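Open question from group meeting: does this chain pack into something compact, or does most of it stay loose? Before anyone orders reagents, we agreed to write out a predicted structure and look at it together. Recording both the input and the output here so the notebook holds the full record.
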Amino acid sequence: MPVVSRQINRHRWLQAVLWAHLPLLALVGLVWGEAPSRIGLESLLLVIPALTAMWAPNRGIAASAVAVGLLSASGILVYYSNGLAESHFHFFVVISLIALYHDWKPMLVGLVYTTAQHVFGALFIPEVVLGSSDAIADPTRWALFHTGSLVLLAVVLMGSWRVAGPRPDQGPGDQFRRGFSEAPTGMALLARSGRFVLANRAVVEVLGYDQERLLRSELRSLVHPDDHVELDRAWLELGREATPTITTEMRCITAGGGVIWARISLSMIDETPTEPAMVVLQLEDATAAHRQSQHLEGLVRGKDEFVAVIGDEIRHPLGALLTLVSGAGEESPLLDRVETHVREISAIVDDLIVSAMTETRPVTFVARSTDVDSLCREAMAEVPGSEDLPLSTHDASIWADPVRAKQVLRGLIANAVRYGGPNAALRTTTSGPDILIQVIDDGPEIPEAERERIFSGGLHDGRPVTKPAAVGLGLTVGRHMARQMGGDIVYRRSPDHINVFELSLPSEPINMVYNPRIQASADRLGVPA
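Structure tokens returned:
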């Protein structure tokens, strides 16, 4: 059994012993002729400490209350017996019971209370407290003798604690407390209200408050007002089964009035029959890491803005070149090849610009009803080599941005033509409120482990998209845009060994607020809902 559990069980046992004295002393009092009213009044000397032990705010007060109650029982027993010498042995038994706590606090309280009992009795009722005629003749000396005997017994018992081993609340628990106090990471124990109950040295050093002031504070008062909403959200989620620990970063106000970024972890400790629920706080100064992160984010943002600007600049001369080639009039294999490559470069630049924009500023979508057959044919016309692909469509419309939808579909067709098998095709179908546009090919299967990675932009070695380690930029950008429009792109391998890239888009207007997929994508990409 854990050390703390043994201590709790021992305290409960001693409480039971105290409560058991109530009926026993009442019986003794009645046998020796005490009036019931007096017995009831004197029982309060046991009831009050017993109730205090049940409702005490900490273990030290509870143990001291039990000690006072048991020693009151000894005094009442001596009083009922008119100072019978044998009844004084009850004091020695009680001192031995109190020693079971292995705690000097209840022992000290008990000895002070016993001394007060004997001094008061020797002065006012010596014939009861001291018993013998010799003692009555010199009550002070005999009271001090009785008290000294009990003190000696207490000293011997406390000395035995060291011989017998560590106190019940020492051992591993004591080592943990020392580790908690000296840990390099800031740690604190909070009440469920957020008030500091215990804080280690590292928290004091990070925040700059002394222990006394910190233990009078609540966590909310130390957090920057602009981050109170974040703290409230974390506090509300704390303790739920799905989130036993919350980790976040927020600003904290130091004792000097400065502001630091802190990495905060909060963990709930459930309440027990003897202890209330508590919260463990871990706090680290993350100011330097936050500044470094901000610096890196600035560099990445600058890079993305640069790419978007350069891509936009490249797109204009490409458009002009494409216009010149298309209007050249004479059919020429060389001009056809130039036009094909220009269209490919233009498509890559479009994807590059959108990819950079999703990291720096919102991408604009203007949705309207768009005919699926027309969309497919326009996309195929912009991908060299796909003009003659089999197309099987039905009369249907989608609700999407036609420019962005065509860009997404164009990327899927280009991947099938360039990297899929020799036989590629397009077909459409429906699934509930969504229209599905499927781009299929008979190329090699993409292994399970790579099927999500091809949409993450994490594979760039130039190998075909239907092989394990390759991906086009168009797939990454395409999925982002499809989800922004309320749809998605998925890959699956059909039972007849065909690769299927499936673009789903809604057939009617949708409310983004009620579409978790759109909202999650918007949150991630910074696009307003």
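Observations to bring back to the group:
The chain is about 55% helix and 15% strand.
The longest strand covers residues 259-269.
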